């Protein structure tokens, strides 16, 4: 019912449409519009898909997918009558149309608040391990706000670029276990990113732009993260106008099971 309450307030090309629902006794169902390409997750790191197969989409398509998701989030944060914070942005919750138009889905953890309400009161941390902003675990990192979705978006975009999970416990080199740390080091030193299927200068520009946006989005201090409107401006603008962000607090979090699951944990 939380999802019905949230999604029924939306109407946007990058938000999935809820056609109907059933809430009768033990019969519970949400009926979305049909999305023939399924979730973004399978194009990134589905075990049944050949390694790096997601890049068969092409960097231009991945760029447009990232921009579409950003527009959907900006609409949720600023375009609705009530501000909607999603709190569970991840590849599994992004559905793709026949033409690979991305649509944000799964509003089960969403929180609806007034548009002028910048800080949200929460009893627990909502989201999925690996995508949750640091501040939802410790108040030392700041208050919970729409910037939590910005952080999750950045972590998801990093997986889109790398074609791998951000935490890879199978990595041979320990410096490559935590992908955000590895990729920041290479960007900082001007080294090649060694990403698959980057074959021309146009793709290199797209990838560099996406990575700079990512590193702004995953800043530990929420005040350093851009709003989604700024993210859109950066993605649509020139890479030459973008500044390298401050180095966020990047370190490998404790190893956890490889399957990602939605969590709702209490904050003491």
UniProtKB/TrEMBL annotation:
GO molecular function: ATP binding; protein serine/threonine kinase activity
Domain of life where this protein originates: Eukaryota
InterPro entries the UniProt entry points to: Kinase-like_dom_sf, LRK10/LRL21-25-like, Prot_kinase_dom, Ser/Thr_kinase_AS
Membrane protein topology class: Single-pass type I membrane protein
Subcellular location: Membrane
Bias-annotated ranges (Low complexity): 249-268
GO cellular component, one term: membrane
Chain positions covered by the region annotation Disordered: 246-268
Name recorded for this polypeptide: Receptor-like protein kinase
């Amino acid at each position: 019912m939380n999802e019905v309450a949230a999604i029924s307030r939306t109407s946007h090309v990058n938000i999935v449409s809820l056609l109907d629902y059933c809430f009768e006794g033990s019969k519970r169902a949400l009926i979305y519009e049909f999305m023939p390409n399924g979730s973004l997750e399978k194009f990134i790191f589905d075990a049944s898909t050949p390694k790096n197969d997601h890049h068969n989409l092409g960097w231009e398509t991945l760029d447009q997918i990232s921009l579409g998701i950003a527009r959907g989030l900006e609409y949720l944060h600023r375009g609705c009558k009530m501000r909607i914070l999603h709190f569970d942005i991840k590849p599994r919750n992004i559905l793709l149309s026949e033409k690979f138009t991305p649509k944000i889905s799964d509003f089960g953890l969403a929180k609806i608040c007034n548009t002028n309400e910048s800080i949200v009161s929460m009893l627990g941390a909502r989201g999925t391990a690996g995508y949750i902003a640091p501040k939802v675990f410790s108040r030392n990192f700041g208050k919970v706000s729409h910037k939590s979705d910005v952080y999750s978006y950045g972590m998801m975009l990093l997986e889109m670029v790398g074609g791998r999970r951000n935490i890879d416990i199978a990595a041979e080199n320990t410096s490559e276990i935590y992908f955000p740390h590895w990729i920041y080091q290479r960007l900082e030193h001007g080294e090649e990113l060694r990403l698959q299927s980057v074959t021309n200068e146009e793709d290199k520009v797209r990838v560099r732009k996406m990575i700079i946006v990512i590193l702004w989005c995953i800043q530990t201090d929420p005040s350093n993260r851009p709003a989604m409107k700024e993210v859109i401006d950066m993605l649509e603008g020139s890479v030459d106008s973008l500044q390298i962000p401050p180095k966020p607090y990047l370190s490998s979090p404790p190893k956890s099971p490889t399957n990602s699951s939605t969590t709702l944990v209490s904050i003491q």
